[in-house]
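Q: Got a minute? One more chain.
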Amino acid sequence: MPGTFLTRYGSFWGFIPQTGGTVFWVAPSASYTVEGRSYSASDGNDGLSPERALLTVGRGVDLAVNAGDVVVLLPGAHTVATSIATDSANVTIMGLPGGRGNYLFPRTTLAMSAVDQTMNVTAAGVEIAHIAFLSTTSQASALIDFSDAADRLYIHDCSFDQFTATAATTILGIDAIGAANYVLIDHCYWSCDGAFGANIDMTATLDSVVSNCLFQQSAGTLAASITVGAATDRLLIDHCTWQITNAAAVTACVDGTGATIASGVTVNYCAFGDRNTVPIDNFDAAECELAENYEAGLGAADGGVLITAIT
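A: Always. Here it is, folded:
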């Protein structure tokens, strides 16, 4: 009975966004547990309740074709063998946060077992939340990439592993492969330990925001953390923090190589770890606006140095 079900699983439904669409549930394995009871997941199930969950993320995303549909990945380790084609507009793909959730490592993980990007977004209004994206030894592309059709993409409360894979500049965290508008990346975490690709590439995006994110470099040298290329315009990078250990380095935390738009990027209220070569680099003076950004100093009595110019 629908009423009985909603009461029984009120704790689950309480974490699901209000929506006029359908909710599809995906289990991390063929056998899974809900409220202490074991169930069998299958792509032959309808996925319409936690006790009738689908087996693969791809099947859940394929079913979510209507605006407002939500794909919920139950807690645990999900693995995909082919890139998840996120090509339906205004759908949400999320893990269960458990309260506000721990964005450093969400309860739901998603890994790619083949040579491909984990998720490819080619539709507008997609939301991705509360998922830990894990790179693997098979990874050779971005964890998430998005095309010019991915306007209003919203990625939040996710973490990105750029250390398990063998270091390669082709492996990015989030990669813009087209000129999308109104992209918001908020409250996410990157852990990186070598010469990977950028944590975030925002080339050619318009009217977009990267905010409240944490970037950690624990070993090796990362060439650039956030990259800004040709035609990026009205990008705000706000309240982000870089932590770089003594065994690591970042050449440019925000790299404007290829930037072409006057005042196209604004960097506000960011804190940059001491072990970077240049916090904000490779912009012409007119291409990047700065406000209240600091570079840390090891044991600095003044709390760090205000960044007043692109060097």
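A: Residues 69-306 form a domain with the Pectate Lyase C-like fold (CATH 2.160.20.10).
Q: Perfect, thanks.
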